[in-house]
Structure formats: C-alpha cells, structure tokens
Amino acid sequence: MPSIVPAALCTHLRPAFSLFLFLGVTFLSGCGANDVVPVGGTVSLNGRPLDSGLVVFTPVGQGRSATATIQSDGSYSLVTDGNDAGALVGEYRVAVIPAGYASAEGQEPVVKKKNPIPTRYLAPDTSGLRFTVEKNKSNRYDIRLLSRSVKS
C-alpha cells in the first residue's frame, strides 16, 4: 500500500518528531517534579500558633529553596518554585520570617514592624532549625519558637 505522506515530508519531520519525543520523555521522567514531596506542619511561638509570616527552607547543599505562607491557624505547606507543592528531598536549614519583615538572601532583615520573635529565627544560618525531607515519610515539621522572655 502506498504511503499517504510524501517521502520528502517524512525526512523533514523526523528531526522535529525526535525532538518532540525527547522533550516528552524528559518531561514525563520527572525532571525534578517527581522529587518534590509534600512538606508541612505548624509554627508556634511560646506555645501559641503564629498567625502570619513566611517559612523558608534553604537547602544545606545544592538544590532549590521552598517557601510557605503561614496561615492564621499557624499551619504551613511548602511550595518549590511557586508551583510544585512540597520540597525536594534533602537537608534544609529553616528560617521563619514574621509578617512585616523583609530580607534579601545574605542580608540582615529590614524591620517594617515590631518583631514578635528573636531575630535569630530570621536567617537559616542562625535559626538553629534544621530538617531533613525524605521520600515516603510524613515530612510534618512543627516549628516551635521560643522568645527570650520564656524560660523552659
């Protein structure tokens, strides 16, 4: 049976089809998205839910940071690159930034309103908070912050 598509057209379409097939397989094989696992928990200050702010998970080695907005009940759910729900598997240093604060990476935070928590929590290098995100685990991390005035 003769081919409906001319041979010359097939020759021109092969490279495009090959590229399309390669990109499709690469995308479906999980170019990172499959390595993102759900991570969440709660943030409390002196035993009470922190009702606003930002949680930042910064990878210890190479990788991508994940962030979450703290909800009014103190809960948070991380997002990587603004779209992927969760964080990449790996070890992280964590910072908690209250609402009304802003900071650029590697710089001291700029105070926009009174800070309810010690400033050490504002940077992943000084917070003392460290978590490991693992595949096939719950990855629920409840972050319990204490102000300096609370004695344990």
In words, what does this structure look like?
The structure is a single chain. The protein has 152 residues and is an alpha+beta fold. It has two domains: 1-31; 36-145, Sandwich (Immunoglobulin-like). Helix content is 14%, strand content 32%. It is built from one helix and 14 strands. The chain has one helix spanning 7-28; strands at residues 36-37, 40-45, 48-49, 54-59, 66-69, 75-77, 79-80, 84-85, 87-88, 90-97, 101-102, 110-111, 129-133, 143-145. The strands form four sheets. Strands 8-7-5-4-10-13 form a six-stranded antiparallel beta sheet, with no helix packed on it. Strands 2, 3, 6 and 14 form a four-stranded mixed beta sheet that branches. The radius of gyration is 23 Å and the shape is globular. The chain starts with 6 loop residues before the first helix and ends in a 7-residue tail after the last strand.
Q: Top keywords for this entry?
A:
about 150 residues, alpha+beta, Immunoglobulin-like, 2 domains, six-stranded antiparallel beta sheet, four-stranded mixed beta sheet, about 15% helix
Write the layout of secondary structure elements.
Blueprint: H1 7-28, E1 36-37, E2 40-45, E3 48-49, E4 54-59, E5 66-69, E6 75-77, E7 79-80, E8 84-85, E9 87-88, E10 90-97, E11 101-102, E12 110-111, E13 129-133, E14 143-145
Parallel strand pairs: 2-14
Antiparallel strand pairs: 1-9, 2-3, 2-6, 4-5, 4-10, 5-7, 7-8, 10-13, 11-12
